[in-house]
Design brief:
Helices cover 54% and strands 14% of the residues. With 263 residues, it is of the alpha/beta class. Strand 2, helix 2 and strand 3 form a beta-alpha-beta unit. GO terms for molecular function: pyrroline-5-carboxylate reductase activity.
Length: 263
Amino acid sequence: MKIAVVGAGAMGEALLAGWIAAGTAPADIAIVDASEQRVTELEERHGVVGVDLAAAAHAETVVLAVKPYQIVGVLNDLRDELADGTLVVSIAAGVPLEVLEGALPGVAVVRVMPNAPALVGKGMAGIVPGASATGEHTATVTGLMDAVGRSLITDEAHLDALTALSGSGPAYLFYVAEAMIEGGVHQGLSRAEATELVNQTFVGSAAMLAESGRTATALREMVTSPEGTTAAALRALDDHGVRAAFLDAVEQCRLRSRRMAGR
Ligand SMILES: NC(=O)C1=CN([C@@H]2O[C@H](COP(=O)(O)OP(=O)(O)OC[C@H]3O[C@@H](n4cnc5c(N)ncnc54)[C@H](O)[C@@H]3O)[C@@H](O)[C@H]2O)C=CC1
Ligand SMILES: O=C(O)[C@@H]1CCC=N1
């Protein structure tokens, strides 16, 4: 077994589905979940194999994808089961290497903050290797994350801020999409029409950000004709303090991530 995902919830499933889409054999992925129903669901949906924690501890890489407050219990249960050489990856927001490595002395641990678009191969992940992780371990994790999108290796000091942009960021964009769709409905469009218009506008705009080589500012200016419709809309967003709201949202997210670790 190559990979074991412990906690096969929303993010655990996004990662394993992304790895399968990228070519990993489902039989090489094991899952452990507290909910039997969830295990059956994912076995049926993806062809992965449900196992217990002791079996998962013998995988080449164990990915811990339970909630932050659940991770210490899982680490304690895992400690005596881990096979020699097993690499442990934690994707839990806000749980520092100090806690992970303190619970698993001498074990190679890597902290990762992935994001939900890994599900469609367009994820963004931050990677922080722990003290016992070798270059080979870091390369393994980079390979796993790059298989479902992109990654960058960063300092742990930046991981709360990274969480506030790429980790939680997809939710901010879905929230904006919801609000725009609602705006279209308010202006008389059907919900189906508004949804198609907004979803494709997100797809096109994201592709321009990724492919045009131009900054977000340059692209926004390109759409903003002097005295035009966009300028009127952006003025309304400024009047409602939307930019300031985003600055505060990112700050609150970083602080929440920091508080999760009791720091
Ligand atoms: N949802 C997201 O977009 C992202 C989540 N994360 C991190 O991923 C982790 C999981 O988050 P979600 O998937 O959103 O939560 P979730 O609640 O959807 O998944 C957690 C899963 O863990 C299972 N579980 C609970 N206790 C367990 C135990 N002792 N052993 C095995 N399984 C157990 C639950 O049944 C559930 O299926 C969190 O630590 C979060 O910080 C990181 C980046 C993005
Ligand atoms: O909301 C959360 O706590 C998780 C971590 C990053 C995205 N979702």
